[in-house]
Amino acid sequence: MTPPPDIKTIVRERYADAVTRGSGCCGPSSCGCNSDLTLGLNMVGNAYSQVDGYVAEADLGLGCGLPTRHAAIQPGETVLDLGSGAGIDCFVARRELNGTGRVIGVDMTPEMIAKARANAAKLGYGNVEFRLGEIENLPVEAGLVDIVISNCVLNLVPDKAAAFAEMFRVLKAGGRFCVSDIVSSVALPAPIRDAAALHVGCVAGAIAEADYLGLLSKAGFTDVRVAEAKSIALPDDLLGQYLDARGLKDFRASGTELRSVTVLGTKPVSRA
Known about the structure:
By secondary structure, the chain is an alpha/beta fold. Helix content is 33%, strand content 21%. The protein has a 7-stranded mixed sheet with strand order 3-2-1-4-5-7-6, sandwiched between helices.
């Protein structure tokens, strides 16, 4: 039996390629978060370029939402961006802080960290830093952060329960999160769920929305809710790479839908 692919290795390699070749998260010829088939920059259009703090060099077209739109970042806060990439959401968050506070970006891809640090240095942003690490084991002190943001990254984490537990750990009591991600209406068929290329393309890692919200509540968060949602079309020619004709017909008949969602929640004051 062929062993399952090492999703983290695939993700790291493809996102490194996105930095070095500018090819998007799935490479130049596959689905790609940055392709015109489904996700990436097409999920947010040119909305980023209209946001204060936008830095073109940091925008690799890998997001599926604008978490800072709903984050209500306040001057003086400490913001943590999970899967910070080349730094785009960190730099937008910094603008929201209005010269105060602190922004920390964490990413597991060394090439992304190098790119983000170079962008920050070029811009002279002293209150933005980038740390190499994995979301399931964050290199961040407990209770340090006022708000956690993330953009189309938690989808790629195999152990979402561990990631949500880490979010809870690093937040201050009363802290909050605002993350944009991809979810499905129900569990995805195994061929799609297990396809490594689609996983890196932000599709196969999607779990059912109810399960996603349930895991956040189980991690201890309260007032977990969807602030914004957008349906994602999956073309037949893409799905046909992973499903036979019968499987594709059954998938369509099931009414399964993918959505880009921005989710909010709070860490209760009563829990450490």
